[in-house]
Sequence to fold (645 residues):
Amino acid sequence: MENSDKLLEYSIPQLLRLRVNYSGDRVALREKDFGIWNNFTWKSYYDFVRKTALGLRETGLQKGDHIALISDNIPELLFTAIGAHSIGAVTAGIYQTTMPDEIAGIIESLKITMVFCDNQEQVDKLVDIRERVPGIQKVIYEDPRGMREYKKDPWFVSMEEIYRLGQAVHAGEPGLFDSLVDQGSPNDVCHMCLTSGTTGMPKGTMMTHQNYINMGVQITKVDPLEPQDEYVSFLPFAWIGEQMNSFGIAMAAGITINFPESVETAMSDLKEIGPHFMFGAPRIYENLRSSIWLKIDQSYWLNKLMYNYFIEVGQRAAKYRMAGENLPVWLRFKAWLGKQIIFRPLINQMGLLRLRRAYTGGAALGPELFTFYQAIGVNLKQIYGQTEITGIAYMHRDGDVRPDTVGMPLPGTECMISEQGEILSKSASVSPGYFEQPEKTRELLEGGWLHSGDAGYIDEAGHLVVIDRLSDVMHNHKNEMFSPMFLENKLKFSPYIKEAVIFGNQMEYVSALINIDPEVVGKWAEDRGISYTTYMDLAAKEQVAQLILDQVRSVNAGVEQDHFRIQRFALLYKLLDVDDGELTKTGKIRRKVVMDRYRHLYEGLYDPNTGVKDVDAHFQYQDGQSAIVKTRVRFYTTALDGHNQ
Fold:
């Protein structure tokens, strides 16, 4: 393959064609369907993209048009995306969990004219809002099951029909597709990626071919990949984290992308593939960690004893490895022994035995979790970036993993900290701006730098330390600064805590609303003969509250500043949920939404005389029905000499 920097001269379809010339018979995509893995070589990948591109063009998609993608991760999603790019159209990913009303808003704001859906569930959402989206010319579907009635309506087109049309055009004009691909430029906008929407309606971030390819080229300079390496695609394609792998890294390095049979089987399918690298949001690694602890908790007493001993050994050894230092002989032997008898079988069960590197991004991950994974032999590293810089701008290097930082800039990336403490960046991966939002674009790119909206600093080793969102950094009533995200991450390292929301801005002390982990706490309760029915019932148990009180006190013991310690908390009676608008699609807390929705609990946290509150818990079910359940919430004070309500 050509020098990696030369790849920046290509568009994504042009780079796909180049891959065919160099490694046409090598497997590019692999999909599990009805239990069988089906392969697509780079040549067949290109052939399907050609058929799709010409079929879309014949159906009415033109250069400059916008087509939305609402689908699980399947090869046809990439065929449609890159096919659209080949004819100069622009794609936009929409999360599969997005409800019809929000889809209508996105379609209107991004001026979408066609939509690709993978199945009837997504098609039905378009049917619900058909009258509200008159600009949609066609809805393309991949899975024909359940589509019998829709086939008579010309508004719907099957993927098979797109292929048929494209093949017929190619037979009549065999040089047309390549001529269309030749017209593309690396600086063309090819995709609009929705921002996480923590503060409102997601914005359409315009991404160019060069944005994606540059990110893929630069990250593989730091962590090289081999063409035979495997990657499992299970993150939502609407998230920049998946796009940077499918569009950027895959094209730059020529790796194989594997598509699980379904979202539900992703973890078990991952075990069959054994990927060489993995990327996931913090929640993925938090859930994996919880499953590991459950396995150990359910194991024999001897296994528990050995695990507890060797995890301490592993953590000591991890600190040497992360710093790039040689281990003492005695520690190297103990760490090797622990790996052979405990950790190697454990990570093999998880499907991570071949994993050379794992990355996490999208939100901060606590230092304790890094050390945990490094201790069991998973080379987990933090990356930092945002949608507007194609996901990655900073990352850890092997042998230089500092758990409290996000590493150093990728090659070709500049970093600066503004006078206000904001992280600013420059690179070829920076987006040209937001679609039809010139004011927001000017704010984003003011002074020629990408404004992250995050507060941070560069440490003495040149690593970037992210403190928190500038808008989320809090000050107590004495104007002493603290980061809620820091405390939330420390709390979530506990296997018993799934989510935490920290408060305390302009207040006398820090407080928290906490979600317990229903799986881990449920097992803990069962082992102690504590019966319960629902999550609400479990969270209301006094024994559970005492368990969480111990966890909060443990976090407080590791915090040096008095004003940074959590003084009051309550256990939420329901899990924070994406569908309820309390979390973004990538799992970030919508702090203002949570504060407004649970203001009655917030007020109780800051009234030391309130020990118990009777509340009406509102629940919204997936079928649209709602219910109100009366429950009692208790408030707890963490000081050892204080009074626990």
Summary: The mean pLDDT is 91. The chain has three domains: 4-275, 280-423+465-469, 474-637. Residues 280-423+465-469 form one domain. The two ends are 67 Å apart (CA to CA).
